[in-house]
Amino acid sequence: MRAAWYDKQGAARDVLQTGELPAPEPAPGEVRVRIELSGIHVGDIGKRQGYWGSVMTYPRVIPHGDGVGVIDAVGNGVAAERIGERVWVYLAQSYRPGGTAAEYTVVPADRAVVLPAQIDAAQAAGLGIPGITGHRAIMAGGSVAGSNVLVTGATGAVGRAALATARRGGATVLATVRRAAERDAALKLGAHHAFIAGPDLRDQIVDAVGAEAIDLVADLAFDKNIELATDLLRYGGSIATYATGETEPAVPFWQLAFKNVTVRFLSNDDFPEAANQDAARDLTAALTAGDLHYDIRATYPLDQIAAAHEDVEQGSGTSRVLVEI
């Protein structure tokens, strides 16, 4: 099969190779998917570069956790009727060496999610890592019906999924963005209120919903937003955060403690499998209904995967980059 891989961590052009590798065979409980489109997420970049202290636990890695394709083989214990299903795949390269940057990948059967025919493959090809993270940020604490939810970076890959999940869950959704065009996009995506981040951000939010009226903050920059979140949260509120600039940020302990705030730190590779499956179901429904949409910035052929990785490293987080297999 045609595939891309790396045998050591480093810069994209230094370590990524393309060529022929043996096609994998599905083990019991697995399916094999012939990949059409492979999605790239910042987590894929980090694993390849060795960010966050990550190391290679396999001598060779085919990158990317997300993709879209068709099941062409099944392992023992999986119904043969699944052959021919159009699916989107998540966590293909989580604690496994073989991701979706190849003609074929194998995953546990539950991680190949049936994709309705009306959904464009490009919309689902990069859904897994950011989509499930955004869903978990909203739903880890239970129902958000009737809550005020603040989503920071709401037009990013994770933010869009968090926004859609909160809105569909019955919350009033407040979104923060960096630019005026992103504010319009957040409102189009379903936010009830959208604010451009700046010195008066707190005042804008208070004017919209009142002081200390936020129940949940779904946050992409814990180090930068912790003071704002602490100020805006009501007693018993929560923060769900999945990224930070500073690895050891200062935390206003007593202010959080006096409000009995819960802080959840999220890592996509390690969510409970039941939560992954709940997210997969809800995200597919959101795509089907048109409540979740991703802007696709570029699609690269497999032999240009290094350029695709560089695009992700340098480009806007509000649009996606795909690799066509």
From TrEMBL:
SUPFAM superfamilies: GroES-like, NAD(P)-binding Rossmann-fold domains. It comes from the Bacteria. GO terms for molecular function: quinone reductase (NADPH) activity. InterPro entries: ADH-like_C, ADH-like_N, ER, GroES-like_sf, NAD(P)-bd_dom_sf, Zinc-ADH_QOR/CCCR. Keywords: NADP, Oxidoreductase. It holds the Pfam family ADH_N. Residues 11-323 form the Enoyl reductase (ER) domain. It is an enzyme of class 1 (oxidoreductase). The keyword Oxidoreductase applies. Its EC number is 1.6.5.5. This is NADPH2:quinone reductase. It comes from Kribbella sandramycini.
